[in-house]
Every structure is written in structure tokens, then in C-alpha cells.
Amino acid sequence: MKKKIGIFIFIVICSTVMLSDWIERIYIGRLAGLPGRYNSYVGIQKEQKDSIDMLVIGDSESMTSISPMELWKSTGITSYICGQSGQRISESYYMLKHALDYQSPQVVLLETNMLFRYTNTPDSLRSSISDTAMYYFPVLQYHNLWKNIVNDQIPEGWQSYKGFAIRPGVAPYSKGSYMKKTKKEKEIPQINLWYLDKIRKLCEKNKIQLLLYTSASPVNHNYKRYNAVLKYAGKYGIPYLDFNQKLKELGIDWKSDTLDKGDHLNLSGAHKITDYMTTYLQEHYMLPDHRGDEKFTKWDTMAEQYTTETGY
């Protein structure tokens, strides 16, 4: 009986692996760029191999703060947003591992909001196990995306600009100052620290420079969180940019630069963060300028489309 169960489990695992491989081979071109929580998982795989200089990981704060098209137009640096709405740091780790199967970035930007999103609970452990399973069996990642393909439900006009979706809406934040100085720290849950260490070590192993950053967000950030991230960054010599400390320098206006009352930046806010990041990357990293290279003409085409749509 035990032998039969073992054979059955083996067949199920093999079938799942084969199905994952089939979906990747047949549908990968159509899956990339579709709306859905895992579109960046597919999108980074479709990019020309070893063509991306910088990856961005994190939850939705990462998806609304850095625009790869604007960065390209200013510097010729290629970047891709591998963030997801509500991305857990365990997902970030496996997203990065997945991306490194196809890309060899010089820099990884990690947006820090996800460090505080999930606590040391049984749910977090179950999520961690689930994320591990989805990494080794990609068909689980593609579940919602491939349903769109099979049912021919691809929305017209949908466009993801290297993981960055345009969000021009405005809902002002009006509750005033939120970065009040204190020496206290917000504790980072142990399971999140464990995965942050794994990401740091994965970057070190692949000779990738890790940069921590916190997007401007009154709803999510405060000085206690800043102190906690700064302490970790200082311990391991990792550069850290907290844009909540640079609001005047950035010119952030909470009447016009937030999508949803201070939770996320909108297109205007992302433009200001990207403009700052453009200068920072040029001053601190030796990243190549691919403009004019025939291998990257599709980036020029997409950048033109982006400018037509956004004005940036």
C-alpha cells in the first residue's frame, strides 16, 4: 500500500513539473504583461537573457515608485519591477531566485514595506511553505494567468511597462506630518529577517549590489520603521534610501502625488522618485547605457509609447 502511494505521489509531482514546463513553452509569450498578481514572474522570464541591469522587488509600494521607462530614457539603464501587490518577503526571495535564472543584474532594489507586513504567525509559516512550492512548481504561479489565456480574456489596451503599471489617479493625503523623531524601533518579525538575510546572501553570492529603499508613504511608514531598517542596513553595510526623509528635496505634494490618500504614490509621485533615483544610480553605480544599441530598440519603442500615454 505504501509503495502504491509513493508511486502515485511521484506521478503527481512529475505531471505537475511537465505541466509547468508545457505552459512556459506554449504560453509564455502571451502570459507576459497580462494583469494579475504574477505577471512580473512571467514578464521577467520573457526579457532578453541577461539584458536587465537592475531588479526591483517588494510589495505594491515598489510597483508605484520606480518607472523603468523613465529611467531608460534618462540613462539607458534597463530595469524591471518584480514587485507584486501584497508581496511577502518569502515571495520576494523566490521571485529573485527565479529572475536570476534568466538575468544577471548588477543591482537589486528592495522596497522595505514588506518587512513589516507579516508577523510571526502560523499563517506566515504556511505562506512561506506555499511560496516554496510555487517556486518549484510554476504552474501554481500561473493559475490565474493561464485561465485568461484559455478563456481568451485578455483585456484590450492593457500594458505593463516592465512591471510598472500607470496609475494617474489622485486622492490627497491631509493628515499632516508623520515622520516624528524617536529612538524607538519597530521590530521586524523574525521570519521576515530570515528571508531578508537569504536575499542579502543570494545577492552576495551572485555579486549583486543590494540597495534598500522606502517609498514615500504616510500610511505605511514612520520613524520607528526607519530606525529598524537603518539598523539592519548599518549592520551589513547596505546603502539605504528613505524617501520619507526627503519629501522637500523630492518636491512631494500630498495633494497631488498620491493615488489613495498616502498609501501609494501615483504617476506624478513615481516620476519624482524615479528622477531622484536616476541621479543616485549614476553617482553610485557603474551601470551601462544601452541607448543606441540595436539589441535594445524595443526599449525605445516602449519608451515612446510610455511618453505618449503619460507625458513623461
TrEMBL record:
InterPro entries: SGNH_hydro_sf. GO terms for molecular function: hydrolase activity. Keywords: Hydrolase. It comes from the Bacteria. This is SGNH/GDSL hydrolase family protein.
